[in-house]
């Protein structure tokens, strides 16, 4: 496959902090209960060494390094890190790889008193965007989710984030919770909207394998209640000036999460830290054509457990898997149709390195005939029906 890669193409970086004070029963992320002190000095050193080990993946043919345009520090609970550890991490990243002057640097945070008291310090050392994991403003629902903060702490944390000189901030809210009524869900949304976050992630609780909720499933609202929550919630958010730009994300104009947009646009990103996933496109000279290059797309996974990750006798990289040519269309559209903006047709070739096959074109024609997407000479876009039946759309490409 041939492609003309652009070194200026966006490159993101995900950094994983794996520890939490207490793991929530619904969480299937790579997180571990903190036992004893946080080994932040040692772990930050490993994160920076991990980054250095990945630099060959993002080295241009002329020897220069690609520029990072966004960093997302997730977990776990990254706000458990001290201000000095976060400063050392961000400075270390800047010393090792070019960072865009306007880079969006997001940190996930719990709204507990200890973490939120540090928001000002995180902003001073370079965090430009904070994502606060509120989930609910109802005490009983917070308790059922295993959250260790209360509603007032959540409100206080959002108010603090709102007065900082941040590029933006996000409020994470869940719905479809055990015992939650439509009225409860709408009250949560109204409370969130009153706090005026520029970005609001609003998503349905799902029961995932390898979680406490999967072992002992709670009773969740039925499908009719879930549908009513979705319909009323969308109307409420739209009336408040929020635009749904992604399946579970709403934003005021200009406040979309740039890091996540890069994911869904099938962009590249380095995955640094325990269990972190990355996606890298690497170009090589094509010996059959002097003016073209071949494109290799790989997904990377780092060692999952902190003890193994910080073992100096082994590599940080656990897996490096090529994306098969037969899977490219599915992977591209699985990501690209998660966001609701128009998808320029040129993006497919630019990010996958090849054109659509006849079979893939036929699958798009099927989606068109079902009313799941619309097409212009230069773009594709989800329809309202496609948003509702996204899984059915993606099943066409399996």
TrEMBL record:
<keyword id="KW-0004">4Fe-4S</keyword>
<comment type="similarity">
    <text>Belongs to the anaerobic coproporphyrinogen-III oxidase family. HemW subfamily.</text>
</comment>
<feature type="domain" description="Radical SAM core">
    <location>
        <begin position="5"/>
        <end position="243"/>
    </location>
</feature>
<dbReference type="InterPro" id="IPR004559">
    <property type="entry name" value="HemW-like"/>
</dbReference>
<dbReference type="GO" id="GO:0051539">
    <property type="term" value="F:4 iron, 4 sulfur cluster binding"/>
</dbReference>
<dbReference type="InterPro" id="IPR006638">
    <property type="entry name" value="Elp3/MiaA/NifB-like_rSAM"/>
</dbReference>
<keyword id="KW-0963">Cytoplasm</keyword>
<dbReference type="InterPro" id="IPR010723">
    <property type="entry name" value="HemN_C"/>
</dbReference>
<dbReference type="GO" id="GO:0046872">
    <property type="term" value="F:metal ion binding"/>
</dbReference>
<dbReference type="InterPro" id="IPR034505">
    <property type="entry name" value="Coproporphyrinogen-III_oxidase"/>
</dbReference>
<dbReference type="GO" id="GO:0006779">
    <property type="term" value="P:porphyrin-containing compound biosynthetic process"/>
</dbReference>
<protein>
    <recommendedName>
        <fullName>Heme chaperone HemW</fullName>
    </recommendedName>
</protein>
<keyword id="KW-0949">S-adenosyl-L-methionine</keyword>
<keyword id="KW-0411">Iron-sulfur</keyword>
<keyword id="KW-0143">Chaperone</keyword>
<dbReference type="InterPro" id="IPR007197">
    <property type="entry name" value="rSAM"/>
</dbReference>
<dbReference type="Pfam" id="PF04055">
    <property type="entry name" value="Radical_SAM"/>
</dbReference>
<keyword id="KW-0408">Iron</keyword>
<dbReference type="InterPro" id="IPR058240">
    <property type="entry name" value="rSAM_sf"/>
</dbReference>
<dbReference type="GO" id="GO:0005737">
    <property type="term" value="C:cytoplasm"/>
</dbReference>
<keyword id="KW-0349">Heme</keyword>
<comment type="function">
    <text>Probably acts as a heme chaperone, transferring heme to an unknown acceptor. Binds one molecule of heme per monomer, possibly covalently. Binds 1 [4Fe-4S] cluster. The cluster is coordinated with 3 cysteines and an exchangeable S-adenosyl-L-methionine.</text>
</comment>
<dbReference type="GO" id="GO:0004109">
    <property type="term" value="F:coproporphyrinogen oxidase activity"/>
</dbReference>
<dbReference type="InterPro" id="IPR013785">
    <property type="entry name" value="Aldolase_TIM"/>
</dbReference>
<dbReference type="Pfam" id="PF06969">
    <property type="entry name" value="HemN_C"/>
</dbReference>
<keyword id="KW-0479">Metal-binding</keyword>
């Amino acid at each position: 496959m041939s492609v003309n890669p652009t070194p200026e193409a966006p490159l993101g970086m995900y950094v994983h902090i794996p520890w939490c004070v207490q793991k929530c029963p619904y969480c299937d992320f790579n997180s571990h209960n903190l036992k004893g002190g946080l080994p932040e000095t040692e772990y930050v050193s490993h994160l920076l060494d991990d980054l250095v080990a990945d630099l060959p993946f993002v080295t241009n043919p002329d020897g220069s390094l690609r520029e990072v345009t966004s960093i997302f520090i997730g977990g776990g609970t990254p706000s458990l890190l001290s201000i000095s550890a976060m400063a050392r991490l961000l400075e270390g990243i800047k010393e090792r790889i070019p960072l865009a002057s306007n880079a969006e640097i997001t940190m996930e945070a719990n709204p507990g008193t200890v973490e939120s008291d540090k928001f000002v310090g995180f902003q001073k050392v370079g965090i430009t965007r904070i994502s606060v994991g509120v989930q609910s403003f109802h005490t009983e629902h917070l308790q059922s989710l295993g959250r260790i903060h209360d509603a007032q702490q959540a409100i206080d944390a959002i108010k603090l984030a709102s007065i900082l000189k941040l590029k933006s901030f996000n409020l994470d809210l869940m719905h479809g919770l055990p015992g939650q009524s439509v009225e409860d869900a709408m009250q949560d949304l109204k409370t969130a909207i009153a706090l005026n976050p520029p970005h609001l992630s609003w998503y349905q609780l799902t029961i995932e394998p390898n979680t406490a909720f999967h072992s002992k499933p709670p009773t969740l609202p039925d499908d009719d209640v879930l549908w009513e929550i979705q319909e009323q919630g969308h109307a409420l958010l739209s009336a408040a000036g929020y635009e749904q730009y992604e399946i579970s994300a709403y934003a005021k104009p200009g406040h979309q999460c740039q890091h996540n947009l890069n994911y869904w646009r099938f962009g590249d990103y380095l995955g640094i830290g325990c269990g972190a996933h990355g996606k890298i496109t690497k170009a090589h000279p094509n010996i059959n054509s002097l003016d073209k290059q071949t494109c290799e797309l790989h997904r990377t996974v780092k060692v999952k457990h902190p003890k193994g990750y910080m073992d100096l006798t082994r590599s940080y990289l656990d897996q490096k898997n090529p994306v098969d040519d037969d899977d490219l269309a599915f992977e591209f559209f699985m990501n690209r149709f998660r966001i609701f903006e128009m998808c320029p047709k040129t993006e497919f070739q630019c990010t996958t390195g090849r054109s659509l096959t006849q079979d893939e074109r036929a699958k798009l024609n099927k989606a068109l005939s079902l009313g799941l997407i619309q097409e212009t000479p230069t773009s594709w876009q989800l329809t309202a029906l496609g948003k509702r039946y996204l899984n059915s759309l993606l099943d066409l490409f399996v």
